[in-house]
UniProtKB/TrEMBL annotation:
The keyword Coiled coil does not apply. The lineage of its organism: Eukaryota, Metazoa, Chordata, Craniata, Vertebrata. One of its GO terms (molecular function) is alpha-1,6-mannosylglycoprotein 6-beta-N-acetylglucosaminyltransferase activity. Its EC number is 2.4.1.155. It holds the Pfam family Glyco_transf_18. It is found in: Golgi apparatus membrane. Residues 155-743 form the Glycosyltransferase family 18 catalytic domain. This is alpha-1,6-mannosyl-glycoprotein 6-beta-N-acetylglucosaminyltransferase. The keyword Acetylation does not apply. The chain crosses the membrane at residues 12-31. GO terms for biological process: protein N-linked glycosylation. GO terms for cellular component: Golgi membrane. InterPro entries: GT18_cat (IPR026116), MGAT5_Glycosyltransferase (IPR052105).
Length: 758
C-alpha cells in the first residue's frame, strides 16, 4: 500500500531537511562562520569545543540518520506501477542530489565530532592552563568571566572564541591584553623591504575622486610627480640603497570625512583654505615614494574596514595585532578612531601620528594635568607623547616637524624669472574679501609705488572690499598663480592667514615677502583665532618661520601701523634683487629625508628603561660620578665622550644642556644660543647629576608633576625633578624658576635633523 502521496513525500523530506537547517543555524556562536563567503552549512572545526558542542554534533548525526532512512523509503516507492502517477507529480528537486548533499553533511559532522574530541583533549593539557603571572594579575578573573559570558556578544566568536580555555587565553592575550602571550602561538613575521618609488600613477588611483578636495590633491601630486621622482633617486644614492623595512601605513584624513562635516571640499574652488590639503597631498606622496604599503581613508566606513572593527555590541576591542605599523591622522580622525576602537586605542595609540598645524604643548596634552591646571581645550588631552604630533612648520620643538613641499625652479626657469621680474609689481596674499577690510591706509601707500594685483574669489560682482586700483584676477589655478608670482617683485601679507604655505611658494618664485609684525604677539590670551588651541605659543608675525629661518633679503617683517617704517620697507623691496629661494626642508628631497628618519628612528611603543640604571651609574667617572662634562669656556654640559650613551634619537652626542634664565622657556633659551630644544633628551637630564654638573646647589631635591620641571626655584634654591614623563616640555615657562634645557644643534635648512642624525 502507498504510504505517502508525492505531495506527502515532498512534505516529509522538506520537514526533515528544513529541521536540519533550523537546528544548525540556531546554534549561535558555536557555528558562527568567520568568513563572509561561508554558507550556513560550512561549519569550522576551530570554533567548536566543549561538552555542549559534542552533544550538538550527536543530535545532528541522529537527525541525519532519520532523514536518510525516510528518503531511502521514499525512493523504493518509485516502482513501475506508480510510474505514471509520479510522472504526473514530477518533483521540483533531485532526490539523488539531495541524498548526496545530506550524506556529505553527515560525513562532515562525523569528522567534526572526531576533531572536537581532539580540541577537548588539547584544552585540558597544560599549555592552556590559566597562568598566574604577577604582571597579568587580572588574567584568572577575566578567564572566569569569559567562561560565563562568552556567548553574550557575537564579536567573541568573530575572534575565534569557542568555549574552550585555549580560545579564552588566545583572545585575552592577543585581542585584549589581560593575559600573557602564549608560547605555543606564532608571533613572528618576516618584514618586507621598502624600495623608493618613482612612478606615482598607482598613488593617484588610490587617492580616488568624488570630492573636489581629492581632485585638488590628485592635481598637486601629478604636478609634482617629476620632482618627487628626481628626489627619490637622489635620496636613494645618499642612503646607498640600504635596506629599509616596509611599514604598513594607514592615512586617515579625518577632516575630509562627511562625519566631521567636511567644510573644506565645497570651498576648494571658492577661495577656501588649501594649506591642509597641500600638506596631506605631500604626506601621501612622500610615504608612497618612500616605498611603504599605504592605505588611504577619507570616511568612517573605510576606517572601520581597514582597522577590522568587529561586529556585535562593542564589548570586544579591535583585534590585538593592529593591521598597521603607523597611522597618520588629524584631531578629527583621532576622535573617530576612539569611537571605533574603544579601549583598544589605549593599547595602539603609540602607532598614531597626528597632523597638527599649530602644535600641541605637553601641558595641554596631559588630560589630568590640563584639567587641574586650566589647560583643558577642545583639542588636547590625548595623553600621547607630544612628538607624535606633527606640525606644518618647526615652531613647536615639543612636536615633530612634518612640513610640506614647494616647487623648485630649474636653472633655466630661474634665469627667465630674473629677466621678467617687474620691480613695481606686487601681489596681495588674501583670497577672501574679508581679509582686505581695514587695509586701505597701507594699500594706498603701496599704490604710490607699485601696481597691486589680487586673487580674490568672486562669482558675479567685484568684491567691494578690494580697492578700485587693485587689479583682481579672481581665483587662479596653481599654474597661472605661479606665473603671476614669477613676474611680481613683492608678495605682501595682511596678517592672516597665519603660517600658510603661500609665502614659501612666493619666495620660491623669486618674490620678496613683506609681512606685518604683531605688537603684542598673538596668542590664545589675546586673539580669538588661537583661543581653544592646545598651545600657549606667542606668534610675533604672520609667518614666524619666514621671519626666523629665512629673513632678509627674502623676508621683511615690519610694523604696518607705522607708515614711515612701511614706506621704507617698500623702497627696500624695489631696490633689492633676489633669486628664487627655498629652504632644503621644504623640497621633495628634504621632506623625504626627514620623514624617512622619523619612520626609522621614532618608536613610541618601546618602553624606555629608567635612567640611570644602577649598573651604569657605578661606571661613571668623576667625584661625584656623572655622565656629563663641562667643556672649557662653555656654559653648556655635554655627554662625556668616554661614556657609552643609551640608545636615543637624536643621539646624545648632539646634546648641549643649559640652565635657562629665570622665567625663560627652553625654546627661548636654546634659540638664543643658536640651538633648538630637544624633548627626546629630557629623560637623560632629569637627575641630580645634571644639577651638579651645571653647578647648581640644591637646598632640597624633590620629584613633582609640573610641566616646567626639571628646574630650580630662584628662592630658596629647591631643585625639582619631573615625575610625569608626558609633561617633559620645551615650551613650559614660569616665573621664579630656572629650567634645565636640553638643546641640540641642527642642520641649516633641515631643522629636524642634527649633525649626527644623518
Amino acid at each position: 500500500p502507498r504510504l505517502f502521496s508525492p505531495d506527502g513525500q515532498i512534505f516529509v523530506v522538506g520537514i526533515g531537511f528544513f529541521s536540519l537547517c533550523f537546528l544548525m543555524t540556531s546554534l549561535g556562536g558555536q557555528f558562527s562562520a568567520r568568513r563572509l563567503g561561508d554558507s550556513p552549512f560550512t561549519v569550522h572545526t576551530e570554533v567548536l569545543g566543549g561538552l555542549e558542542s559534542r552533544g550538538v554534533l550527536r543530535k545532528i548525526s541522529d537527525m541525519l540518520e532519520v532523514i536518510l532512512k525516510r528518503i531511502d523509503a521514499l525512493s523504493r516507492l518509485g516502482n513501475a506501477s506508480d510510474s505514471h502517477r509520479l510522472e504526473d507529480h514530477r518533483l521540483p528537486w533531485d532526490p539523488v542530489g539531495l541524498v548526496e548533499r545530506i550524506q556529505a553533511i553527515a560525513q562532515n559532522v562525523s569528522d567534526m565530532a572526531t576533531k572536537v574530541e581532539q580540541i577537548l583533549q588539547r584544552s585540558s593539557t597544560s599549555q592552556c592552563d590559566v597562568p598566574k603571572d604577577p604582571h597579568y594579575p587580572d588574567c584568572p578573573s577575566k578567564v572566569d568571566w569569559m567562561r560565563a559570558r562568552w556567548t553574550s556578544d557575537p564579536c567573541y566568536s568573530f575572534y575565534g572564541v569557542d568555549g574552550s580555555d585555549c580560545s579564552f587565553l588566545v583572545y585575552l592575550s592577543e585581542v585584549e591584553w589581560f593575559c600573557p602571550p602564549l608560547a605555543w602561538r606564532n608571533h613572528s613575521s618576516t618584514p618586507s623591504a621598502a624600495t623608493l618609488r618613482s612612478d606615482l600613477g598607482p598613488l593617484l588611483d588610490q587617492v580616488g575622486t568624488g570630492k573636489e578636495s581629492l581632485s585638488f590633491m590628485r592635481r598637486r601630486i601629478r604636478r609634482l610627480a617629476v620632482q618627487w621622482s628626481a628626489a627619490a633617486r637622489r635620496l636613494d644614492n645618499r642612503l646607498c640603497s640600504r635596506w629599509r623595512e616596509q611599514k604598513r601605513i594607514l592615512v586617515h584624513v579625518g577632516f575630509l570625512t562627511e562625519e566631521s562635516g567636511d567644510v573644506f571640499s565645497p570651498k576648494v574652488l571658492k577661495g577656501g583654505p588649501l594649506g591642509e590639503m597641500v600638506q596631506w597631498s605631500d604626506i601621501l606622496a612622500a610615504l608612497y615614494v618612500l616605498g611603504h604599503d599605504l592605505k588611504i581613508s577619507v570616511s568612517v566606513k573605510e576606517l572601520q574596514r581597514f582597522l577590522g572593527v568587529p561586529p556585535g555590541r562593542g564589548n570586544c576591542p579591535l583585534t590585538g595585532r593592529l593591521p598597521f605599523d603607523l597611522i597618520y591622522t588629524d584631531y578629527h580622525g583621532l576622535q573617530q578612531m576612539k569611537q571605533q576602537m574603544g579601549i583598544s586605542l589605549k593599547k595602539h595609540k603609540c602607532h598614531i601620528r597626528v597632523i597638527d598645524s599649530f602644535g600641541t604643548e605637553p601641558a595641554y596634552n596631559h588630560e589630568e594635568y590640563a584639567t587641574q591646571h586650566n589647560y583643558r581645550t577642545n583639542w588636547g588631552y590625548w595623553n600621547l607623547n607630544c612628538r607624535q604630533f606633527m606640525t606644518m612648520f618647526p615652531h613647536t620643538p615639543d612636536n615633530s616637524f612634518m612640513g610640506f613641499v614647494a616647487e623648485v625652479m630649474n636653472e633655466t626657469d630661474k634665469r627667465i624669472t630674473r629677466l621678467n621680474k617687474v620691480d613695481s609689481m606686487a601681489v596681495v596674499y588674501g583670497k577672501e574679501p574679508s581679509m582686505w577690510k581695514g587695509k586701505e591706509k597701507f594699500l594706498a601707500i603701496l599704490h604710490r609705488y607699485m601696481e597691486i594685483h589680487g586673487t580674490v574669489y568672486y562669482e558675479a560682482q567685484r568684491p567691494p572690499e578690494v580697492p578700485a586700483f587693485v587689479k583682481n584676477h579672481g581665483l587662479l589655478p596653481q599654474q597661472e598663480l605661479q606665473q603671476l608670482l614669477r613676474k611680481a617683485k613683492l608678495f605682501i601679507g595682511f596678517g592672516f592667514p597665519y603660517e600658510g604655505p603661500a609665502p614659501l611658494e612666493a619666495i620660491a618664485n623669486g618674490c620678496i615677502f613683506l609681512q606685518p609684525k604683531f605688537q603684542p604677539s598673538h596668542s590664545s590670551l589675546n586673539h580669538e583665532f588661537f583661543r581653544g588651541k592646545p598651545t600657549s605659543r606667542q606668534v610675533s608675525s604672520q609667518h614666524p618661520y619666514a621671519q626666523q629661518y629665512i629673513g632678509r633679503p627674502h623676508v621683511l617683517t615690519v610694523d604696518f601701523n607705522d607708515s614711515r617704517q612701511f614706506e621704507d620697507a617698500v623702497h627696500e623691496v624695489m631696490r633689492t634683487q633676489v633669486d628664487p629661494f627655498l629652504p632644503y626642508e621644504y623640497t621633495c628631497e628634504g621632506m623625504l629625508e626627514r620623514l624617512n628618519a622619523y619612520i626609522e628612528h621614532q618608536d613610541f611603543c618601546q618602553v624606555d628603561a629608567p635612567f640611570p640604571s644602577m649598573n651604569a651609574s657605578k661606571s661613571w667617572p668623576g667625584n661625584p660620578p656623572s655622565p656629563f662634562i663641562l667643556p672649557p669656556n662653555s656654559s653648556a654640559l655635554v655627554w662625556a665622550p668616554n661614556i657609552t650613551a643609551p640608545a636615543c634619537w637624536p643621539p646624545l652626542s648632539a646634546m648641549q644642556l643649559l640652565l635657562a634664565q629665570e622665567g625663560v622657556s627652553c625654546v627661548g633659551s636654546c634659540q638664543v644660543e643658536g640651538l633648538i630644544c630637544e624633548p627626546a633628551f629630557f629623560p637623560f637630564i632629569n637627575n641630580p647629576e645634571a644639577f651638579t654638573g651645571l653647578r647648581v646647589h640644591c637646598e632640597a631635591l624633590e620629584a613633582e608633576v609640573n610641566h616646567i620641571f626639571p628646574a630650580v626655584s630662584v628662592e630658596p634654591g629647591e631643585c625639582f625633578l619631573q615625575k610625569e614623563p608626558l609633561l617633559y616640555s620645551c615650551a613650559g615657562v614660569q616665573a621664579k624658576h630656572r629650567r634645565l634645557c636640553p638643546c641640540r644643534d641642527f642642520l641649516r635648512g633641515q631643522v629636524a635633523m642634527c649633525k649626527d642624525c644623518v
